[in-house]
């Protein structure tokens, strides 16, 4: 369907949707106030070097632009008479497997866990009045397509390896023909295409043809990514990707590419060159945000999207890594044995961790001369925080636990990190 046709969509259908939306009332308390954005540096540190970030920018954006122009010719199906949106609108990931491609056991768990992390990430920029805002997500569906990959790559039985024509159009149309509700109101699909290389594109409806910066909210959308994203989250950086953009092919940056394409499906375009935004520096994920300024209010666009709902700010954490000795020598009366431990949690909840309110606390055993360490900067959902501090060995030999958990004030939450440490004679 052409852009012209998209704009001239059946008025009755769209009018009805608008009516339903207004009758149901706007369920979201949309603030017109600009959010207070994190200060420079407060977002944490990206793992992508400046040089690779420049490469990612130069490689990604011209191609994405071209892909999105071709995706604008996509068939947006006319919903059948009496069509009702699903009562719970969700983002649906699909793993698209051409007849000559193979699913790895890592693929499905990687897609599901990435989508869960991206859900949490979105709740960070969208947090308001002690509520986290994010989308619901379905488990990944696997579609075993009947034709070899080349059929979808260029729409013919055979094509040259570097000949890419409308991969996303062909994939979407194949899914629609197979009965998937791609681009029906109430569904957003993010499609992972095995064989799709560095492909990245996205489209939304109804207002994406007239995308300003940022665009209006969407009622349906589709995003397509290839092996570079899929490999990074499942088996490791894709070699072809590494040649083009180095460290931007790692897990976090590529999760950022997946989250960026999802941002387009919610109605966002690019972020007026603001490097703090996911819609610009996706390679800095999870240490990026959405912009909430009057002229560039990404937060408002996404928070008012009908796929986004509120949830209570419950907190959770995952252990990312820890570094503690297995054996230390005991302290002597005149010579305390001090040593460092470090461990990293991620914020796997729905709102940010704030300094002084959030801390890590010793669960077991209270023999180390320290029981508590505060979070010193805001930690937004999906971001990591590393604790590093000194313990003092006890004066009696034995086996003691050094087990730590996150707390909000005095309430424990999330995963436990640590181990039993053997305390020996010097
Ligand atoms: Zn983009």
Bound molecules: zinc ion
* Major beta sheet summary: 7 strands, mixed
**What is the arithmetic mean of pLDDT?**
88
Oligomer: single chain
Order of helices and strands: HHHEHEEHHEEEHHHEEHEEEEEEEEE
Outline the low-pLDDT stretches. Answer: 1-43
CATH architecture designation of the largest domain: 3-Layer(aba) Sandwich
Beta-strand portion reads 25-35%
CATH topology of the largest domain: Collagenase (Catalytic Domain)
- End-to-end Cα distance, whole Å, is 77 Å
Whole-number count of domains: 2
* Principal-axis shape: elongated
Q: Which structural class fits the helix and strand makeup?
A: alpha/beta
Rg from alpha-carbon coordinates: 24 Å
Q: What's the CATH class label of the largest domain?
A: Alpha Beta
For the secondary structure, the number of strands is 17
Number of helices: 10
Helix amount? 25-40%
Show the helix and strand layout:
Layout: H1 3-7, H2 11-23, H3 50-71, E1 90-97, H4 107-123, E2 131-137, E3 141-144, H5 149-154, H6 167-177, E4 187-193, E5 200-205, E6 220-225, H7 227-234, H8 239-245, H9 251-265, E7 292-293, E8 296-297, H10 298-303, E9 308-312, E10 317-323, E11 327-329, E12 338-347, E13 358-364, E14 372-374, E15 384-392, E16 398-408, E17 411-424
Parallel strand pairs: 1-2, 1-3, 1-4, 4-6, 11-17
Antiparallel strand pairs: 2-9, 5-6, 7-8, 10-12, 12-15, 13-14, 13-16, 16-17
Bound molecules: zinc ion.
Walk me through what this model shows.
The protein is α/β, with parallel strands linked by helices. A hairpin with a 7-residue loop joins strand 13 (358-364) and strand 14 (372-374). The chain is 26% helix and 26% strand. The chain contains 10 helices and 17 strands. The protein has 2 domains: 47-312, Collagenase (Catalytic Domain) (3-Layer(aba) Sandwich), CATH 3.40.390; 317-424, Immunoglobulins (Immunoglobulin-like, Sandwich). Helix 4 (107-123) crosses helix 7 (227-234) and helix 7 (227-234) crosses helix 9 (251-265). The protein binds zinc ion (ZN). The site of zinc ion has 4 residues, from helix 9. The site of zinc ion (ZN) has 4 residues, from helix 9.
